[in-house]
Design brief:
Number of helices: 1
Shape: globular
Largest sheet: 5 strands, antiparallel
CATH class of one domain: Mainly Beta
Structural class: alpha+beta
CATH topology of one domain: OB fold (Dihydrolipoamide Acetyltransferase, E2P)
Helix content: 10-25%
CATH superfamily of one domain: Copper binding periplasmic protein CusF
Order of helices and strands: HEEEEE
Number of strands: 5
Bound molecules: copper (II) ion
Strand content: 25-35%
Radius of gyration: 22 Å
Length: 129
């Protein structure tokens, strides 16, 4: 009798867990930012660090893993380039506008998904409001 009750309780706990999974909201999409910057270094093919280094403007709307807007100051950092994104015609010193996506779920990471060269002579504002 006690075993039967324990069994029924286990089943109902399982049902509740499975049931709540079915009702779960779909995961939020990755955070996406479009930012300006200046290319510092192209990816080192075959090197240990294959990121595209960009001195990017501040990103006031940048969100942390909890979705809280914390901003990101202007800095130079490497951006892993998503497969299929062409860097043809991009060189160090170029002013660019680029888009990157941040995924906080495991596996967390970020990727540059789009980049375009700005007209020669474009002055990047590194501290936009
Ligand atoms: Cu940064």
């Amino acid at each position: 009798m006690i075993r039967w009750i324990a069994g029924v309780m286990t089943m109902s706990v399982l049902a509740a867990v499975v049931g709540s999974c079915g009702r779960e909201a779909p995961p939020p999409p990755a955070d996406v930012y479009t930012v300006r910057g200046v290319v510092e270094r192209l990816p080192q093919v075959g090197g240990p660090d294959s990121g595209l280094y960009i001195h990017h403007a501040a990103i006031p709307s940048f969100r942390d893993e909890h979705g809280k807007v914390v901003g990101m100051m202007s800095m130079t950092m490497p951006f892993p380039v998503a497969a299929g994104v062409s860097l043809a015609g991009i060189a160090p010193g170029d002013a660019v506008q680029f888009t990157f996506a941040v995924e906080w779920k495991q596996p967390a990471g970020y990727q540059l998904t789009r980049i375009e060269k700005l007209p020669p002579g474009t002055v990047v504002d590194f501290n936009p409001r």
